[in-house]
């Protein structure tokens, strides 16, 4: 795999330290060259209430500086924000000498193994890293930053790693009855002398990966914790001052922040015992979704559709306004949402990199929200009015740099699947294939928007037909689910079953499964549809559309193999608090993060 990361100097120089003390809108000299302005862009006004009460800014004394090795792929903004939140400032690695001179070094590896090693080797960072770690200097590797310490990986390989820890990185085995990637909040089995895990307190932490390291006699002296997912794998290592974790502390809420704090302040005495949890396995996720668009006054708002219609049924027919995106996301984080998903519901109409307010929403949200963020809408190849071509990879990269952990692809994935099913050939040119190849399939969600079509007999259409629980308007006992594009406005000649199978083959790591018929109805998820898709693919499926009560969440988890359930309107309107959903699931014996 070719590395697409930029040189270290260009990566760090292009980043901005964004203040949240004022209301801003964004202007661009080019779609990928962003800068702040106090003027409006077009007719879109982006207004923010300062979230500064959450964060602590550090003075740049030697004890408050952390050296960060950012090789240029994926969302590293989140670890930056977490470090600043804890009161630390950041020095970026520009040269191998910066590694050797670091007082403490964090390597938040994001993306795929081969491109990362390619960048480290070409820049001379690999040798400096080995020297630093072999000298027992304070080091914390995160996710890929753990895997690269091992001898090799089979991801697009074999590919040689740094070789500091015995063992090979291999892919999870789906034949063990698990979904790959491993996405979600799981439990740790913590060993003695783990140090940075002392405050985890048997609570869940967030994982997102397809490859893992297996414990062995050769590496057992390094292991500080394991996790079970079909098998036991290494979730953290420690030897002296050298630590690395497979999970993402910057995405594991307060628990994850405690891990970072322990690494950064090993001598800090904790006077209050951490809350003990009851984590034992992979939890079901409860996700808050924010449909974002500009209203008729030009303000960016969270809205909610009724079968995808977001306008009020009134004389004014205005866009339904349920709150400000940054404020709501911050509240849902405090309320216990396991993930937050932003869907730019007009992104299919315009050039996505021109939608700078949405990018800025991500940036502000990620300053104080330490759970995974997904963004979707308009992620595709694009040629602007001047004839300049932008690949979907460039669009996704801007979202990742702005704070997204996963991107969601809708219409473009439908077109790619149709071409793949017609030709049987993976061209590697679709947005789905390009992004998953560079960032890993765990970073790519495909959003499916199907509509139920009733038929009298399974042979009536050339698509997967199922017997439905509730008959159609004329007593039909069967239905297929027609996929749509452009926000549900256009039906396509492909079913949800066929699309799900195709996008999994093309590189999707997760499916967000909507249902236009159930959207905004509050009568429950379409469990027929969710069961069909979750039984048919080996990647996680998120159930969406129709939640109205806590019981609807337990129903979809009990009747289907959904890994997560998503809701929007009931949270926005405060009809059902997130905590009430989780308390109900616990009462029903369904494991969730608390």
Automatic annotation (TrEMBL):
Pathway: Amino-acid biosynthesis; L-histidine biosynthesis; L-histidine from 5-phospho-alpha-D-ribose 1-diphosphate: step 5/9. It holds the Pfam family GATase. It comes from the Eukaryota. IGPS catalyzes the conversion of PRFAR and glutamine to IGP, AICAR and glutamate. The glutaminase domain produces the ammonia necessary for the cyclase domain to produce IGP and AICAR from PRFAR. The ammonia is channeled to the active site of the cyclase domain. GO terms for biological process: L-histidine biosynthetic process. Keywords: Amino-acid biosynthesis, Chloroplast, Glutamine amidotransferase, Histidine biosynthesis, Hydrolase, Lyase, Multifunctional enzyme, Plastid. Its EC number is 3.5.1.2. L-glutamine binds at residue 143. Its main location: plastid. PANTHER family: IMIDAZOLE GLYCEROL PHOSPHATE SYNTHASE HISHF (PTHR21235:SF2), IMIDAZOLE GLYCEROL PHOSPHATE SYNTHASE SUBUNIT HISF/H IGP SYNTHASE SUBUNIT HISF/H (PTHR21235). Signal peptide: none annotated. This is Imidazole glycerol phosphate synthase hisHF. The lineage of its organism: Eukaryota, Viridiplantae, Streptophyta, Embryophyta, Tracheophyta. NCBIfam families: hisF, IMP_synth_hisH. It is found in: Plastid, Chloroplast. It catalyses: 5-[(5-phospho-1-deoxy-D-ribulos-1-ylimino)methylamino]-1-(5-phospho-beta-D-ribosyl)imidazole-4-carboxamide + L-glutamine = D-erythro-1-(imidazol-4-yl)glycerol 3-phosphate + 5-amino-1-(5-phospho-beta-D-ribosyl)imidazole-4-carboxamide + L-glutamate + H(+); L-glutamine + H2O = L-glutamate + NH4(+). Coiled coil: none annotated. The keyword Lipoprotein does not apply. Residues 410-411, 447-449, 519-520, 545-546, 568-569 are annotated as: PRFAR binding. Belongs to the HisA/HisF family. One of its GO terms (cellular component) is chloroplast. Residues 68-263 form the Glutamine amidotransferase domain.
